[in-house]
Amino acid sequence: MVKISRAALAAVMMMTAGGLIVASPVAAKKKQEQQAPQLKLSDAVRKAAVAARDAIAAKDIATAQTNVDAAIAAATNDDERYIAQALKLSLTATQGQIEGAADAAANARHDQALIAPLEALISNPSTPATEVGNYSYMRGSIAFNQQKYAEALTFYQKAQAVGFTNQDLPLQMVKAKVESGDVAGGMVQLGQLVEQEKAAGRVVPEAWYRYAIGKLYKTNDSATTLQWVQRWLGAYPTSKNWRDAIIVFGFQGPTAARMGKPERVDLFRLMRASKSLADQSDYLEYAGLTFDLGLPSETKTVLAEGTATGRIASSSADASALARTAQDVISRDESLASLTTKSKARPDGKLAAQTADAYLGGGDYTHAIELYRLALEKGSVDTDAVNTHLGIALALTGDKAGATTAFDAVQAAPRTDIAALWKTWLNVGAQAAPAAAATAAQ
User: Fold this and answer.
1) How far is Cα 404 from Cα 158, in angstroms, rounded to an integer?
2) C-alpha separations of 62 from 6, 95, 117, 174, 371 in Å
3) DSSP string, 103-141
4) Residues of the chain with pLDDT > 90: what percent?
């Protein structure tokens, strides 16, 4: 909900209306000579307005109401209607302040009561432009609270058009646009706000990124969602944020349906590189997937790392059983040196790619890189998968340029999305690459 400070509103109204009506004719003439022309008020309106102003200041609601009603009834021109409605707005705000906002229903009643005087003031030619902006923003905020988002946007745009400035206005316009159904337009506008904040040397609030991602997540626009995830991680690359981003974007929602076991493993590898594997379930799922894919060395390494960091309980029967099974497979598998020799003799790159995957899982990135490149050269392989893995191996050795080139060679979703997340990590978390590589090699 957009909060409107009724105490501040009352003060503004008192300053606006009170200062114009209290002056005596002589003082008004002197002020008129020095400043702008005074409002044209009849004695009847002036008398009722002064009495209303004083009663509002004293919080004498009954007397104020009587005199506000008298001022409205006596008003015959725009100046008088401006004063009368400004006092009505001030009275309404003061009533809301006295009654308080005990619950949502009370807030809604107070907001509804402000609508009539606000709209009267917005449309009155005698209302100064600076006040029109303020009133339009308030009226837009009430419409927003009532979930009338298109109406709110119209009032916000009017406030902006007359020069009203407020730190909340730009974001409120974005939210009104998004909530009225124009998510794409709202995201474009929010992107512009982000760039403006950056250009001004200000820190963009993390809530802006989270708002964008939360709204885009409900759409099928995975490309734009990913762009905002990248912006968010670029600005706030914490381990928690990395985990949230990878899980939300890769393991949940529309993108998750396209992620098979190999793709999920590559996302778990990114979690590991960004130090965002959080608990035993993360480690066990990651280890289980690698075992299913025939990568027992990575299974063993992941389980050992999880146990060493305390995220896998030493008493975990599941982890112990999987580690023993992985070790048993490793002891029976053909050596990677032998497979490397056979890979070089093969006419296609299939065995080279498989052997490279084993080297990658075991933390031997040098041999993995060599064989991934051989696999691409020989052909007959899934080039997107090989380029993804080549990029990961290069990234984990700290070769940012080489990794970027490999990730850029990935052509089709969902691997393009995985590559984009890895490139984001290269840009904001590459300083952790040597440590990640050292851990992986243990």
Assistant:
1) 46
2) 19, 10, 18, 41, 87
3) SHHHHHHHHHHHHHHHHHHHH-TTS-HHHHHHHHHHHHH
4) 76
Entry field: residues in the chain: 442
> pLDDT tens digit string along 299-351?
999 999 999 999 999 999 999 999 999 999 999 999 999 999 999 999 999 99
Residue pair 139/117 in contact by the 8 Å Cβ criterion: no
Place of tokens 């008398």: 47
Q: Write down the H helix ranges in 247-316.
A: 253-256, 261-273, 280-292, 296-308
How confident is the model at residue 108, as a pLDDT? 87
Per-residue pLDDT, 167: 85
Q: Quote the tokens at residue 152.
A: 């709110």
Distance CA 283, CA 172 (A): 41
| 2 or 51, greater pLDDT | 51
**Token code pair at residue 267:** 């996302």
CB 359 within 8 A of CB 367: yes
